[in-house]
Predict the structure of Amino acid transporter transmembrane domain-containing protein.
Amino acid sequence: MMERNAESKESKDDSDYNPFEHRNVEIPNSTFGTLLHVIKGSLGTGIMAMPLAFKQGGLLFGAIGTVAICIIYAHCVHLLVSTSHKASKRSKIPSLGFSETAADVFTNGPPRLRPLATFATRYVDVMILIQSYLAFCMYLIFIARTLRDVVINQQQVELDTRIYLLLLLVPVAVITQIRELKYLVPFSGVANAIMIASIGITLYFILREPITLVDRALWGEWSSLPSFISTVIFAIQGIEFILPIENKMQHPQHFTSWCGINNVSIGFLTVLYSVTGFFGYAQFGDQTQGSVTLNLPNNNALAESTRLLSAIAILLSLGLSYYVPMEITWQMIADRVPPKFANWAQAAIRLNVLLVLVAIAIVAPQIEPFVGLAGSIGGGTLVVIYPVMLDVVFRWSTGDFGLFRWHLVKNFVLFMFGLFVLIVGTYFSVMEIVDSYR
C-alpha cells in the first residue's frame, strides 16, 4: 500500500511539474523583445528574392504557396517548442535547447531508437554551427561589397572588398561581444525598422508605376515550382534561433499561444513576403532579377539606398546571428575553463572565432554557393524533418497520436514535404556551385 501511494505521489509530482516555474534566467527578455528577435531571425535580404520566387511559381500559385509554406513553418516551430516543453516537463528540466531536446526525446524514446540520441544531438549542433558561421561570413561580404559600391558611386574611389572587411572588424568585434539577448533587443528593433524602411522604398518604386497583370503567369512551369518552394522556405526560416530565444523569455507561455509570438511573427512576415513577391513580379514580369533591388532605377539615390539600408540592418543584426553558434561553441568547452577565467575566456573565444570568420571571408569571397548548400542540407532537415521526427518519437512513448492516429498521418505528410525540400534545395545548391566553377 505504501509503495502504491509513493508511486501515485511521484506520478502526481511529474504531472504537476511546471518547467517555466523553475527557470532561473538572470537577464530575462520581455515578450516584445522576443518578438523583435524572432522577426529579425527571419527577416533578411531573402525577402528581396521573393519577386523571383513568384516569377518561378506564378502569381496565383505563388500567393497560395507562400501562405501555405509559412503556415507549415509556423506549425513546425510550434511542434519543436511544444515538444521541448513536454520533454522538459517529463524530465523535470527547466529548459532545453534544440540539440538537448533531441537528446532527451531519443534517450527516453522507444528502446530501438535510443542509440540514435548521440547522433541526433550532434547533427543539430554541427549543422547549426556550419550554417551560422558560413552565413556570418556571407553577411560580412555583403556589407563590405555594399560599402565598396557606395564609395565608388559617390566618391569614385575604388578599394578592394578586403579593405572594407578589415575596416568592419572593429565595429563587428564590439557587437559580437554582447552576450545577453536582452541587450541585443535595441539592435534587433533598429535593424527591423531599417529593413522595413528598405522594403518600403522598394515597394514605392514598384507601385509608383501602373501595374498590369497581362502576360503575368498565374501558375509557373512545373520544372520551376521546386525552385519556388526552396526559395520561399529558406527565405522565411530562422528555426535555429527559436529555442535559444524562447528559453530566455520572462513569460515563455506567450510563445506558442494563439496570439503568441510564433503566430504573430509569422503572420506579419507572411504578409510582408507575399506583398513584396506578388507586386514585384507583377511589375517587372520576366525582367525580375534575383534581387528585386536590381530592377530599381540606376543613378537614383533613393533606389540605391535600399542596399545600403539592408547592409546597415544586417550589420546591426550580427550580434543575434552570432549568439546561437557561440552558445553552442561555449557549451562545448565551458567545463574545461576555470570559473574565475570564464568571462575572459568567452571574450577571447568570441574574438578569435570572429578573426577566423573574417579571414575566411577575405580568402574565399565567393562563398555564397557553399552557404546555400549548407543551408539546404541543414535547413531542409532542421526546419521540417527534425520537429516532425521529435514529435513522433515523443508521442510514440506515450501513444498519443489522436483519433485515427491523425498526428502520425499529418507528420508523415510533413516529413515527405521536408524530404522533398531537402532534395530539391540540395540539387539547386550543387548546380549553383557547379555553375560558379565553369
About this structure: The chain has 16 helices and no strands.
